[in-house]
UniProtKB/TrEMBL annotation:
The keyword Electron transport does not apply. The lineage of its organism: Bacteria, Bacillati, Actinomycetota, Actinomycetes, Catenulisporales. Belongs to the adenosylhomocysteinase family. It comes from Catenulispora subtropica. This is S-adenosyl-L-homocysteine hydrolase NAD binding domain-containing protein. SMART domains: AdoHcyase, AdoHcyase_NAD. Keywords: NAD, One-carbon metabolism.
C-alpha cells in the first residue's frame, strides 16, 4: 500500500506468533532480499527488529518488526512487519514491487497454522482416522482458492501420505487478502502453485513432475474437460476426480459418456445438498447486507436467477427476510418447482427485470446468469450479486460497454452508470460470500470443515486400489463412502444440540476457557483475519 503522507512506498504485513516466530519470519525476509538484491547484504541493524537494507543505486528499505500491542497491554501474539522505501533512486516499478513483495509473501507462523487447524477439526482429524496413509503412492492436482483453509487441507493431505513434490495447486486467481502468504506457505512446503487460467500447461507440468497416478480435487469442472480436449494422452495417469461444486458437475455432464474416470461427487452428496446449501445461502445474504448496511431490503423486490441447490435456498432466505422474491431458471422442471413453491416466475429474464423491477438480483447458475440483451432491462439503482464460482456469472464486459461511466466502490464492488440508472455489481462480480478482506465475510468455518473433510475423504477413497467406483459420477457410492467416514456423526457431536449439554456438560462451564478445544477454536477465529 502507499503511505499518503510521505509519498514513500510502504507495505505492512500483520502476523500472529511468538516473538521467536517473528524473528524467524524477519530472518527469512532478509534472506529473500539478499537473494533479490546483491546490495542488500550490506544491511545495517538499527535496533531490535529494525534493519536498513540497501537495494542499490542509493535506494534503501527500512524494515521493522514490532508487537501490535503496547508494552502495557497483555501480549496477544499480534506482530506487524513493515517496510518503507526511503529512496527509490535507480529502482523501476518492477524492482519496487519485488522488494515489497518479499514482505507481503511470507509463510504463516506456527501460531497461525495452529489457529487455522483449530477452526477445521474434522478436516485436520482425518489423519488420525486414516493411519494407513492412503495417499502415500498418489499424486494430487487441486483446484482452489488461496485461502487459509487450503493450508489446512494441504497439511492434512501430507499427513495422509501425500508427498508435497507430487502435489500441484491450480490457483483460481481470486484477489483474497492473504493469497500471497498462502502461496508462500505452499512454496515453503514444496507444493507447486500454478495459474488455473493456463490449465493445459499446468497439466503437462504436473505430469512432468509426478510419476505416480494422481487424483484430481476439482472445484468447477476445470480439469477433466481440459484433459480430454487438450491432453488426452495424460488421462491414464489419473485415478479419479473429486468434484465439490454443482457448476463442475454440470461441466462434466456436458461430456456425457466421454467421462473416462470415476467421479466422487461431493457436490451431489447428501452432505452438500442437505447441510451446506442452506448455510451458503445464509452467508450470501449476510454478506450482501454487510456490504450494503444502509440499504433497506425489507419488502423490496428481489430476483434469484438459477433455482438449483443453492439458488433455491437463497430464494428461501430472502423470502424469510421479507423480500418479495421472483425466480428464473432456464430448466423447466426447476422453473415449475419455483412456481409451485409460491415464487413469481417467468421463462424469460427480461419479463422479471421489467415487470418485477428487483432491487436485488442474485445469480446462481454456474454459467452466465445475467448478461447479453437482458442487461438492457435492468432497473436503475439495483444491486447484483454472484454466488457462482464462475467469473462469467455476470456479464461485466456487457455492462461496461453499456455504461456511461464506471465507478470503483472499493470493497463494495463496481457501479455501472447505465442510461436507465446505476447498477452496482457487488464484490466485483466474484462470489459475494467469499472473504475479501475482513473476518466477518465468508462461510462459517464449521460448515466448510465438513465439506472439505468430505473432499479429502473422497481423494483417499479414489487413491485406494479396488475403490469400486465406475467411470462417471457415482452419487450413491459417494454417499455410502461419506457415511462410512463417520464425518456427519462427528460434525453433529461437535456442533449439534448436544454441544455444551448432557455428556458434554462437564466442559460447558469452561467451554470458552483458554485450555479447551472450544476455547482454542474461538481464540483462533478471533486472532486470524481471513483473507
Amino acid at each position: 500500500m502507499k503511505d499518503t503522507h510521505s509519498g514513500h512506498a510502504t507495505t505492512i504485513t500483520e502476523l500472529q506468533g511468538t516473538a521467536e516466530q517473528g524473528r524467524l519470519v524477519l530472518a527469512e525476509v532478509l534472506d529473500r532480499l539478499d537473494g533479490a538484491f546483491p546490495a542488500a547484504a550490506g544491511r545495517h541493524r538499527l535496533g531490535p527488529g529494525a534493519h536498513l537494507v540497501p537495494l542499490g543505486g542509493g535506494s534503501a528499505l527500512l524494515i521493522a518488526l514490532a508487537p501490535a500491542s503496547t508494552p502495557r497491554d497483555r501480549w496477544n501474539g499480534r506482530l506487524v512487519l513493515s517496510a518503507t522505501l526511503l529512496d527509490r533512486s535507480g529502482l523501476g516499478d518492477a524492482d519496487v514491487a519485488r522488494a515489497l513483495g518479499c514482505l507481503e509473501a511470507v509463510p504463516f507462523t506456527g501460531w497461525e497454522c495452529e489457529a487455522f487447524t483449530e477452526q477445521l477439526p474434522l478436516l485436520a482429524g482425518l489423519a488420525r482416522r486414516l493411519p494407513d496413509k492412503p495417499l502415500r503412492e498418489c499424486g494430487l492436482l487441486l483446484v482452489g482458492h488461496l485461502l487459509s483453509d487450503l493450508v489446512v487441507q494441504v497439511r492434512t493431505l501430507i499427513a495422509l501420505g501425500a508427498r508435497p513434490e507430487a502435489m500441484t495447486v491450480l490457483d483460481k486467481g481470486y484477489p483474497h487478502k492473504l493469497r500471497q502468504r498462502v502461496r508462500a506457505h505452499l512454496d515453503g512446503l514444496g507444493v507447486a502453485v500454478l495459474p488455473l487460467c493456463d490449465v493445459e500447461t499446468a497439466l503437462r507440468l504436473h505430469a512432468a513432475r509426478v510419476m505416480e497416478p494422481s487424483v484430481v480435487v476439482d472445484d468447477g469442472g476445470h480439469v477433466l474437460p481440459a484433459l480430454l480436449n487438450l491432453a488426452p494422452e495424460l488421462v491414464p495417469a489419473y485415478r479419479g476426480v473429486v468434484e465439490q461444486s454443482m457448476a463442475g458437475v454440470e461441466e462434466l455432464e456436458t461430456l456425457g459418456a466421454r467421462v473416462p474416470l470415476p467421479v466422487f461427487s461431493v457436490a451431489q452428496s447428501r452432505v452438500k445438498r442437505g447441510i451446506e446449501a442452506h448455510w451458503i445461502a445464509e452467508s450470501v445474504v449476510r454478506s450482501i447486507r454487510e456490504l450494503l448496511p444502509g440499504e433497506g431490503f425489507d419488502g423490496a423486490p428481489a430476483l434469484v436467477i438459477g433455482f438449483g441447490t443453492v439458488g433455491e435456498q437463497v430464494a428461501a432466505v430472502l423470502r424469510g427476510q421479507r423480500m418479495r422474491v421472483a425466480v428464473h431458471d432456464s430448466e423447466w422442471p426447476r422453473l415449475l418447482a419455483a412456481h409451485e413453491a409460491g415464487y413469481l416466475t417467468a421463462p424469460e429474464v427480461p419479463a422479471l427485470l421489467d415487470g418485477h423491477r428487483p432491487l436485488l438480483i442474485v445469480s446462481s447458475t454456474g454459467r452466465t446468469g445475467l448478461g447479453g440483451d437482458d442487461l438492457d432491462f435492468l432497473a436503475g439503482g439495483c444491486f447484483v450479486a454472484s454466488v457462482s464460482g464462475r467469473v462469467s456469472e455476470i456479464d461485466m464486459q456487457g455492462l461496461a460497454r453499456r455504461a456511461e461511466r464506471v465507478e470503483d466502490l472499493g470493497r463494495v464492488g463496481v457501479r455501472y452508470v447505465l442510461p436507465r440508472g446505476p447498477v452496482t455489481v457487488l464484490a466485483d462480480g466474484l462470489p459475494v460470500n467469499l472473504p475479501r478482506g475482513d473476518a466477518a465475510s465468508g462461510a462459517p468455518a464449521r460448515q466448510s470443515d465438513l465439506t472439505m473433510a468430505a473432499v479429502v475423504w473422497g481423494a483417499c477413497a479414489l487413491a485406494r486400489a479396488g475403490h469400486g467406483f465406475a467411470a462417471g459420477p457415482d452419487v450413491e457410492r459417494t454417499d455410502a463412502s461419506i457415511a462410512e467416514s463417520g464425518l456427519v456423526e462427528r460434525y453433529y457431536r461437535l456442533y449439534g444440540p448436544g454441544a455444551g449439554v448432557g455428556v458434554r456438560g462437564r466442559s460447558r462451564s469452561r467451554g470458552g476457557g483458554p485450555g479447551t478445544a472450544a476455547g482454542r477454536r474461538t481464540r483462533g477465529r478471533a486472532r486470524i483475519s481471513e483473507v
